[in-house]
Design goal:
The protein is 54% helix and 9% strand. By secondary structure, it is α+β, with helices and mostly antiparallel strands.
Length: 180
């Protein structure tokens, strides 16, 4: 006879309905705007809805990423190891942009990396780890003494964040967008 352990089902917490509704409305308004801005010129290329299809693909990828990250507890992102690993990954991606042949020129600047059908700016991805690192820093002790990590990284994260956001314009564009 085997002993089986039956785990109780976790009770799902209710979701605030306003956020998905607002998000859906904003996405649909964006699709209508994109359609009206690109339809006339895209007719000549054969597929008048090509830009809308690319945007729908991006929305599907974003939705999948949202579902994946929504299953991760919020406190996970505040852990020191996660924050520092994210910073390290961001630093590697930012350096890859500089390497000729790896970084892609789009619209006159080499700020992009190409992954399959999408190109993205690593500087946009670097914002989240910088914020997480700032959140994960140890708080100053009541005596006024603090650890080396908060002393060094406290002024560095906001400075890097401001510098990175200065050089970024959008997160992802289709990779067949006119590279130069």
């Amino acid at each position: 006879m085997t002993n089986t352990v039956v785990l109780p089902k976790r009770k799902r917490r209710p979701v605030d309905k306003t956020l998905p509704v607002i998000m859906t409305l904003l996405l649909m308004m964006g699709l209508v705007t994109l359609f009206s801005a690109t339809y006339y010129n895209a007719q000549d290329s054969g597929d008048a809805l090509s830009e809308v299809k690319k945007q729908l693909f991006g929305m599907a990828v974003g939705f999948a990423a949202m579902l994946f990250t929504s299953r991760i507890p919020y406190w996970f992102w505040g852990r020191h190891r996660v924050a520092l690993a994210g910073l390290g990954l961001s630093a590697v991606l930012l350096v890859l942009v500089i390497i000729p042949g790896v970084g892609v020129y789009i619209n006159g600047s080499r700020r992009w990396l190409r992954l399959g059908p999408l190109s993205f700016q690593p500087s946009e991805l670097a914002r989240l780890p910088m914020t997480s690192t700032q959140r994960a820093l140890p708080q100053p002790a009541p005596t006024g003494r603090s650890g080396w990590m908060s002393t060094v990284l406290s002024p560095v994260c906001p400075t890097l964040s401001a510098h990175v956001s200065r050089y970024s314009s959008s997160t992802a564009i289709p990779s067949n967008a006119s590279p130069q």
